[in-house]
Amino acid sequence: MTTSTRERSSARLALAAVCLGFVMITLDATIVNLALPAIGAEFGEPSTAALQWVVDSYTVALAAFLLTWGEAGDRWGSRRVFQIGTAVFVLASIACATADSLPWLVAARAVQGAGAAALLPSSLALIVHQFPEAGARARALGVWGGMSGVGLAAGPVLGGLAVGLADWRLVFAVNVPVGLIAIWLTRRYVTETTPHRRTRLDVVGQILGTAALATLVAGFIEAGHAGWTATTTLVLSGAGVAAGIAFVAAEKVITAPVLPLGVLKVRSFAVATAIGGLFNFCLYGTLFCLALFLQREWHLGALEAGLALVPLTLAVGLNAFLSGRLTHRFGERRPIVAGGLVALAGSTGLALLPADPSPVLLVVFSVVFGCCSLAMPAMTSLAMNALPGKAGIAAGVLNAARQTGGAIGVALVGGLLPGTAMWVVAGGYGGIVLLTGLLRPRSS
Predict the structure, then answer these.
(1) Which helix (H) or strand (E) holds 323?
(2) Is the separation of the CB atoms in 95 and 439 below 8 Å?
(3) Do the beta carbons of residue 154 and residue 309 sit within 8 Å?
(4) pTM across the whole model
(5) How far is residue 210's CA from residue 65's CA, in Å, rounded to a whole number?
(6) Are 82 and 18 in contact (CB under 8 A)?
(7) What Rg do the C-alpha atoms of the chain give, in angstroms?
(8) CB atoms < 10 A from the CB of 437, how many?
(9) For the segment 58-98, what is each residue's pLDDT rounded down to a tens digit?
(10) Cα 156 to Cα 26: distance, rounded to the nearest angstrom
(11) Which of 106, 140, 264, 375 is 20 to 30 Å apart from 329, CA to CA?
């Protein structure tokens, strides 16, 4: 084997290691959706609000710790942080698979999210480091984004298969061998980034940011079953807003803030961040609603519901991979607009689904909706190219926005009636299309 062949092989295996860890954490954001009825039945907790926390304890922790771990990757090395995050994720997955109560499962899911928060920004920073040439980086980001699409969309399907063929605990146990393989490949083939920051961690910002996100999400969940004017809803929402204001104020004066507000003054990065938050708001909310709709309204079993989502899964995965090529050829703007427009059409169709089962309509609208993933690698490329030399910060802020959007999407959209929820999603994708108007015709 020649030197160049060995180098290409090592590069592929390095990308495989990073993508394995990444697909694992995106998979776990949605794999639990079709297992929720089974989890509720086992623990005697059928309420939607309680089950929303099984999903959102993961995404809240993931969003809350992303910025801190992104900073840690810049300081200590992204390879080291990636391996730490993978180990935490594997251990937390074991705790989820062996949970004997709903509170224990929710707590273990939160630890899982904290581990995932280390994986996500470091995986993106490692790709930037491993592939310094622009063309190779664009192709690698396309694969990375494609794996994200596969993970997000395959989650409900695999969750349904696990529940239908075995037990809901299998959806967490599968992470153990995958995580161990990712750690081994990372140690063998991924090179370390250069540590370059030695400032203190922003503990105040971390606490305030986590408090703001957790209380806001709790307020949205409470509003879904108690109403927007309920005392608990108002108290939680008010606390979230107050913590958010305090967070922004603190970040303005802290020497090394967890969220450097200055990066949001870069227009293309600010737009990419807003698009990322809206995108996950819509996608996570849709997957949560569809999982419950198919089982509660159409009375499908978990396995049947999982199979019913296969067309959406395939569409998301294929279009995410396609987006990498389109982004490299046409720039970021066109794939984002295309993804937003088709998702708007698909979510409108899903909003009009009848109460009686209609498999043909579900397949058609799911496939159209699944083309939303055309926007995924494009928004990532836009954000990373907007802040050259700041891969850890860019990855952390972008993905914190995305996971925050996802947590709020499950909390807010998940508490609405299915038809109403999908109209909200359609409006969100329309917002993505409008946001791209703030970009230049071709980003660089």
Answers:
(1) helix 310-330
(2) no
(3) no
(4) 0.78
(5) 8
(6) yes
(7) 20
(8) 9
(9) 888 888 887 778 777 777 888 889 999 999 999 999 999 99
(10) 11
(11) 264
Helix (H, G, I), strand (E, B) or coil at 140: helix
Q: How far is CA 59 from CA 170, 389, 407, in A?
A: 20, 27, 5
SS3 257: coil
Written as one letter, the residue type at 45 is E
Tokens, residue 382: 């836009």
* Side-chain half-sphere CA neighbours of 151 within 13 A: 19
The Cα angle at residue 181 between residues 178 and 182, in degrees rounded to 5: 85
Residue 216 DSSP symbol? H
Report DSSP letters for 190-201, one per residue: PPPP-----PPP
pLDDT in tens, 245-277: 999 998 888 877 877 888 888 888 999 999 999
Contact 177, 1 (CB under 8 A): no
Q: Apex CA 389: angle with CA 123 and CA 75, to 5°?
A: 60
Instruction: Return the residue matching tokens 């061998």.
Output: 177
State the sign of the Cα–Cα–Cα–Cα dihedral 158, 99, 183, 385.
Answer: positive
